[in-house]
Design brief:
heterodimer, A: MetI-like fold, B: 267 residues, alpha/beta, Rossmann fold, 2 domains, 6-stranded mixed sheet, 10 helices, 10 strands, cell inner membrane (chain B), P-loop_NTPase (chain B), ABC_transporter-like_CS (chain B), ATP binding (chain B), ATP-binding (chain B)
Chain lengths: 280, 267
């Protein structure tokens, strides 16, 4: 080797080896999922068509589908499917907005301050494991049977996961990032706004995903209380009259919406935090 | 007085029996590139954290240009071993982050970011995502971020420690060029002996248990490279090899004596 070979242009740098963002193969999983659902539907149809189980216990899929059309156009219990759905969606959206407004700052406080952690952490950990149905009567005694009680119940179910996830995210912020911002002159407020919250965003979004899941499953409980509209109410009242196809329909709609919410939030997470899972 | 002066600082970490740093004094005058070299546990990171203001000394003081250091501040720019960039910002916004914190208007800070990116040979990468860049490029973004804030001294915490040998040598050249072009004082810590000898105008050799400075050397290899002498010529210069071997011998001599001591305790 001669000197020319060794003199590798001192100030010239090779163009970056750009790391290709990696995506796991998703097609195979999707195909499997579709196959599973299709098999279950076929099985359902076969079992009900064979007459082994009376329609009172398991209505055939086509009856449920017909009921979907009927409730969507004419309604059930004085409201169409869309009105039931809208009532439920409004409750959960209100609860989610309120929970995010309060739980995120509370989570940040718990993550940053020992005092806030000492005061708030036991409170959250105390009520979090209680099933919403257990404290529902108390909420009704305090706040009556109006919309407030229903939204409050869902709100409480969503609040804890978001607050806990936010606190975890805040505590997990890379200390080097904090120091880097400090040595660029960041004030405490700027540190929270520009470093801590964006760093915790992936965890906050995970908290929202989990919270929305628990919130949605609390919905039926919330709508047990003197509701006249809502998917949970629809299922409940249909069950009282043994209208099994409406019960099944309601359950399916609740499930489909929960699934759609989950997929939507995952997409949002990929969009908002594309660096997650990348080596950074 | 226009210098960075570390005056007899001592640090003891809570729960630790020994001192992390014992009576360490150091001066980083203008135009200098001071390198602290030592094995892990010698207190070099503690020393850098003290100067950066991330920790406070139990005794002694740190003064920058006549003002006591009492916390982190923008006049002391820090480059971290693992870049510590913000992945939600693109390259230019990362570089301009310090200016944004200061309230510099967007147009002005973008112009400044592009200017500094050109300085570190990253023009054309302003809009890239930092997590799409290689380790060496990310480290240059970190360097650009510190420089864009126009600090009075640049503190570098094993900045090339995580890079492979080839990129590391390029980064050393880049640092020396920036050092000459910007005239910034630099305080850098490393455990790489060759890197320390090559870069330093003043090399302080540190030793653990308690962390202290055991030798100071005035060197000029970095200046020579900044003035245009090729890396290989310098690193194969007998004078360079002699200093490198001397430092190596010092480090190992100290290790051996420590081993003797611990054996003595056992016996």
């Amino acid at each position: 080797m001669n000197a020319a070979d060794l003199a590798l242009g001192e100030h010239e740098f090779p163009v970056a080896e750009q790391a290709e963002p990696q995506r796991p193969p998703r097609r195979g999983t999707l195909r499997l999922g579709v196959t599973t659902v299709a098999t279950l539907l076929a099985l359902w149809w076969a079992v009900s068509a064979s007459g082994l189980i009376p329609p009172l216990f398991l209505p055939p899929p086509q009856a449920v589908l017909a009921k979907l059309w009927l409730t969507a156009t004419q309604g059930y219990m004085d409201a169409t499917l869309w009105q039931h759905l809208g009532a439920s969606a409004l409750r959960i959206v209100l609860a989610l907005i309120a929970a995010m407004l309060f739980a995120v700052p509370v989570g940040i406080a718990i993550g940053l301050s020992r005092t806030a952690r000492g005061v708030l952490d036991p409170l959250i950990e105390f009520y979090r494991p209680i099933p919403p149905l257990a404290y529902l009567p108390l909420i009704v005694i305090w706040f009556g049977i109006g919309e407030l009680s229903k939204v409050l119940l869902i709100y409480l179910a969503i609040f804890a996961p978001i607050a806990i996830a936010t606190a975890t995210g805040v505590r997990g912020v890379d200390p080097a990032r904090v120091r880097a911002a400090q040595s660029l002159g960041a004030s405490r407020w700027q540190l929270i706004r520009h470093v801590i919250v964006p760093s915790a965003l992936p965890d906050i979004l995970t908290g929202v995903r989990i919270g929305l899941g628990t919130g949605w499953s609390t919905l039926v409980a919330a709508e047990l209380v003197a509701a006249t509209r809502g998917l949970g109410f629809m299922v409940q009242s249909a069950a009282q009259f043994l209208v099994t196809d409406v019960v099944v329909l309601g359950i399916l709609v609740i499930a489909v919406i929960a699934f759609a919410l989950e997929l939507g939030l995952r997409a949002l997470q990929r969009r908002l935090v594309p660096w997650q899972g990348q080596p950074h | 007085m226009s210098s960075l002066i570390v005056d007899r600082v001592s640090v003891r970490y809570a729960g630790a029996t020994g001192l992390a740093l014992s009576e360490v004094s150091l001066t980083v005058p203008p135009e200098s590139l001071v390198v602290a070299l030592g094995p892990s546990g010698c207190g070099k990171t503690t020393l850098l954290n003290l100067i950066a203001g991330f920790i406070a000394p139990d005794h002694g003081s740190v003064m920058l240009d006549g003002k006591a250091v009492s916390g982190p501040g923008a006049e002391r720019g820090v480059v971290f071993q693992h870049d510590a960039l913000l992945p939600w910002l693109d390259v230019a916004d990362n570089v301009a982050f310090g200016l944004r914190l200061r309230g510099v208007p967007a147009r002005e800070r973008q112009a400044r970011a592009r200017q500094v990116l050109r300085l570190v040979d990253l023009d054309g990468y302003a809009g890239h995502r930092v997590w799409q860049l290689s380790g060496g490029m990310r480290q240059r973004v970190g360097l650009a971020r510190a420089l864009a804030a126009d600090p009075r001294v640049l503190l570098m915490d094993e900045p090339f420690g995580a890079l492979d040998a080839f990129i590391r040598e390029q980064m050393q050249s880049l640092l020396l060029r920036l050092w000459r072009e910007t005239g910034k004082r630099v305080f850098l810590i490393t455990h790489d002996i060759e890197e320390a000898v090559f870069l330093a105008t003043e090399l302080v050799l540190m030793s653990p248990g308690p962390g202290r400075i055991v030798e100071r050397l005035s060197l000029d290899f970095g200046r020579r490279h900044a003035a245009g002498e090729p890396v290989r010529e310098i690193k194969s210069d007998p004078a360079f090899i002699a200093v490198r071997e001397h430092v190596l011998a010092r480090v190992f001599a100290h290790r051996a004596s420590q081993a003797d001591v611990s054996q003595g305790v056992i016996a």
